[in-house]
Design brief:
Layout lengths: L5 E5 L5 H10 L3 E6 L2 E6 L1 E2 L1 H6 L4 H10 L6 E3 L2 E3 L12 H8 L24 E4 L2 H4 L8 E6 L18 H18 E11 L9 H11 L3 E9 L25 E8 L16 H7 L3 E3 L17 H11 L5 E4 L6 H8 L3 E6 L2 H12 L1 H13 L6 H11 L7 H15 L4 H18 L11 H12 L7 E14 L4 H6 L3 E20 L2 E18 L1 H17 L4 E9 L14 E4 L14 H16 L5 H8 L5
Parallel strand pairs: 7-14, 8-9, 8-13, 10-12, 13-14, 17-18, 18-19
Antiparallel strand pairs: 1-3, 2-3, 4-6, 5-6, 9-11, 10-11, 15-16, 16-17
Length: 632
């Protein structure tokens, strides 16, 4: 069946009537159930016809899923997903490829497969030196990627380096450096040269460099066009306007020439891949539209490539912790991005001024801010404390050492990935103490401290997540009602309204239903927990009202409060409310803010939640048969 159909897993459950409707009206496609999941099988589909039924919520959902497929054919008005390019396929492709000979020019190469360690003394360093001489200090076969952009010999004003050599001298020097680059590159490593020909001299620099690498037995992996969309260039050579005499061709792009040493495959650990599926699909299309660097005057450099270009190269062609070398490092763009993406870098440049600027860029606060933002941005949305820290880093008003808070949080987050309950609790308590001692400037209204508990509960209970059961902060379903304008309107439509309550933390199920061509998404709580740094009488009254509303629509839901301190008069008894329990993390009585969080209180919370999730919530039949009472 897999060969006959393209398979799409549907996360949403569909009504039987919707499935029957689809299967009846669309030949070449069908919805089936497999292992409790709905599967959309596609051979071909009339997409125009499907869009004509878009008033139905389920068809809109199907359209959104089908739109994720980027590869298909079109025939007779239908999208074809199977064998759509069958007629264009080369028969016996592998056999014919072998006959022609893949990269025949790189056969009988002299490269060894043995890898040597890269010297620790050169790791993550900026070196002011002549690359031809310095690269001789690096062992053979020790570098994963050479990425660089040599001077173009256009006559630009570089520091300590002329840019108007005669072409023979230029290429002689360049190729001596490239010889060293080839030597230090690992077997399977890549060398990528960003270059632009000097069109006014009619020197195809990119072809000359490529030809040199081919003669050195490297494998041509491809060529990337860096489209700069820079149209500020002349239209003609003198005397050729509107004439075939000598038209001047306009180039708005530069070239990235990509070569491999020994073999095309570069080996690495799967866990060190950091390119997303969407990035991969975009980057392998070898025309990259990226604006030129706008900060060249700020860094006093005439020809910088942008950080976005480096980021694409590193993510597509290297793994985290790979060794990256730039022998024409300039002001350090390659190294800056390599450090942010957790690659090991070495940057070499002959200009002391450029090396100093590169060092400054690597150490400046803005760079570290980018690292922090990148880490926090990629967190699961349930990591609410990490996201809270991200908003503060982005906010310009806070004049604090965010490196300190970021490193504290990163350690806390890493330790939360441990499956040991006791270690998780101890890490939470330690983190709370460190934040308390830091005397941070963030107000209680900013929820910096209160979100620590919310995120900790996510890590504490995420083991109970499954396909249908989730944990985290939600707008919890509390009730449903109907609000028609009048009887006439009510006959036509149900006018359903949903009441919800924001909950700091919940274990819940996502429920979807359809009515009157409307889709309703409910988050039905099983456990809800309000998180407090303290609770007083007014706050308790608010929690009692919330518990009443939540339990009105969810009678089996447990409603808990977790607070650091309890500051309500003992005469007020919460037992008369619908709150199931209050866990006070700092034992010892009322108003004990100076006390430490007690580990056994968290363990008690964990055990109570776990026991409830494993219990039967309704035992009417067995209770009556065995005990003669309904509630036991």
């Amino acid at each position: 069946m897999d060969k006959e159909y393209r398979k799409l897993i549907l996360e949403e459950k569909l009504l039987k009537s919707d499935i029957d409707f689809f299967n009846k009206n669309f030949q070449g496609a069908k919805i089936i159930e497999e292992n409790g999941k709905h599967i959309l099988l596609l051979r071909e589909i009339n997409i125009k016809k499907l869009k004509s039924f878009s008033t139905k919520p389920f068809t809109r959902y199907l359209l959104s899923k089908i739109n994720t497929i980027k590869s298909y054919g079109i025939k007779n008005g239908k999208l074809n997903f199977i064998d759509y390019n069958k007629d264009n396929k080369v028969k016996e492709k592998e056999k014919k490829s072998a006959k022609r000979g893949k990269f025949f020019y790189a056969k009988d190469h002299p490269f060894e497969k043995k890898t040597n360690p890269f010297p620790d003394e050169f790791k993550n360093k900026i070196v002011c030196a002549d690359s031809e001489e310095f690269l001789k200090k690096i062992p053979d076969n020790s570098v994963d990627l050479i990425f660089t952009s040599p001077p173009y010999n256009f006559g630009l004003e570089y520091k300590n380096n002329p840019d108007d050599y005669d072409w023979e001298s230029y290429f002689n020097k360049l190729f001596k450096i490239f010889d060293e680059c080839i030597r230090i590159l690992k077997y399977g490593g890549r060398i990528i040269i960003n270059i632009q020909p000097l069109f006014s001299d009619y020197i195809p620099t990119h072809h000359i460099i490529s030809n040199y690498f081919l003669n050195k037995k490297l494998i041509w992996k491809g060529e990337i066009l860096w489209e700069k969309n820079n149209y500020n260039c002349k239209y003609t050579a003198w005397g050729s306007w509107k004439s075939p005499s000598n038209p001047y061709l306009k180039y708005t792009w530069e070239f990235l020439e990509v070569f491999s040493k020994g073999e095309l495959k570069h080996k690495g650990k799967k866990e060190n891949i950091d390119i997303s599926a969407e990035e991969f699909k975009e980057y392998v299309i070898a025309k990259w539209s990226i604006a030129p660097e706008r900060k060249m005057k700020e860094f006093n450099h005439p020809a910088m490539f942008p950080e976005k270009l480096v980021e694409r190269v590193l993510k597509l062609f290297t793994y985290k912790h790979d060794i990256v070398v730039d022998p024409f490092n300039g002001v350090g763009s390659t190294c800056v991005v390599a450090k942010r993406l957790e690659r090991i870098y070495l940057g070499i440049d002959i200009s002391e001024e450029y090396c100093n600027i590169a060092e400054k860029r690597l150490n400046e606060t803005l760079f570290w801010r980018k690292i922090m933002e990148e880490f926090l941005k990629n967190l699961n949305d349930k990591c609410v404390h990490g996201k809270n820290l991200l908003t503060k880093i982005k906010h310009k008003k806070y004049k604090v050492d965010f490196n300190y808070f970021f490193n504290l949080y990163k350690d806390f987050y890493t330790e939360m990935q441990n499956n040991n309950l006791n270690q998780k609790i101890e890490s939470f308590i330690k983190y709370k103490e460190l934040i308390k001692k830091s005397k941070h400037p963030f107000s209680s209204q900013s929820k910096f401290e209160s979100t620590i508990l919310e995120e900790f509960l996510y890590h504490l209970f995420k083991e109970f997540e499954s396909e249908n059961i989730k944990v985290g902060n939600i707008k919890a379903y509390s009730s449903l009602y109907f609000s028609p304008k009048n009887l006439k309107e009510f006959k036509k439509k149900n006018f359903i309204k949903i009441n919800t309550k924001d909950q700091d933390f919940a274990i819940y199920k996502k429920v979807i239903f359809y009515d009157d061509n409307e889709t309703y998404e409910l988050f039905v709580p099983i456990i809800t927990i309000e998180c407090k740094t303290y609770i007083d009488k007014t706050m308790l009254e608010g929690s009692i009202a919330t518990a009443e509303k939540i339990k009105f629509g969810n009678p089996h839901c447990k409603f808990y409060i977790v607070t650091e301190t309890y500051e309500v008069d003992y005469k007020v008894d919460p037992a008369t409310s619908r709150i199931d329990n209050i866990f006070v993390l700092k034992k010892g009585g009322r108003n004990k803010r100076e006390n430490k969080i007690e580990k056994d209180v968290i363990v008690a919370l964990y055990n109570e939640v776990k026991q409830f999730l494993k219990s039967n919530w309704s035992n009417i039949k067995s209770n009556i048969e065995n005990y003669g009472i309904i509630f036991k």
